[in-house]
Design a protein that fits this description.
Elements: E1 3-4, E2 10-12, E3 18-21, E4 27-32, E5 36-42, E6 47-53, H1 70-83, E7 92-97, H2 106-122, E8 127-132, E9 137-142, E10 149-154, E11 176-178
Parallel strand pairs: 2-4, 7-8, 10-11
Antiparallel strand pairs: 1-2, 3-6, 4-9, 5-6, 5-7, 9-10
Length: 179
């Protein structure tokens, strides 16, 4: 499920949602705290998508699939991209989020980071860039056709540390820009 802004080209997704597009003018937005957003891009077919999930797995041993769960959210995103013509072997990823917004839920951030790294490794999807952890929320803008992703850190007045990217910036062809 997605929410389309006026003009039809800007899509904002919320927790438990994803969106895929091959529209050259499309931009997908989301706002993250401890959640994760994965931006997938397939450069040959010029298609991309983003999801936004809360937890790596269900709580309390739940086995029913839920789009707020990482594994299910990733499969939905990948399957929709393939259905629209993307080649699985050409997918690349950029990962954002998992900020420790409150100490009370810091385990969620750590679990999300571990999950998404393991999932991408297991599925042989290269992660070109990631910006995870820290104490800031992030606003993400993703251009699905080009694979360009930008983030804006949402400042916290009580934050004790600055965000430090865990990986080097991606190649110039697919930059992650901070604005």
């Amino acid at each position: 499920m997605s929410h389309i802004a006026m003009g039809g080209k800007v899509v904002t997704i919320f927790q438990g949602e994803f969106h895929v597009s091959d529209d050259p003018g499309a931009v997908i937005n989301t706002l993250l705290g401890s959640c994760i957003a994965v931006c997938l891009h397939e450069p040959q077919r010029r298609i991309g998508g983003m999801n936004h999930f809360l937890l790596p797995e269900g709580q309390g041993g739940s086995t029913s699939p839920d789009v707020k769960q990482g594994a299910h959210a990733m499969e939905l995103l990948i399957n929709d991209m393939i259905k629209r013509g993307a080649m699985r072997s050409k997918l690349t990823a950029k990962v954002f989020g998992a900020g420790r917004i409150t100490q009370r839920f810091s385990y969620v951030s750590e679990a999300n980071i571990a999950f998404v790294r393991q999932f991408l490794r297991a599925e042989n999807i290269p992660c070109l860039a990631e910006s995870v952890g820290g104490e800031s929320a992030r606003r993400i803008r993703f251009e699905p056709v080009t694979g360009d992703a930008r983030q804006m850190l949402v400042p916290r007045s009580d934050a004790k540390e600055d965000l430090r990217p865990v990986r080097p910036p991606p190649p110039a062809a697919n930059p992650v820009e901070l604005f």
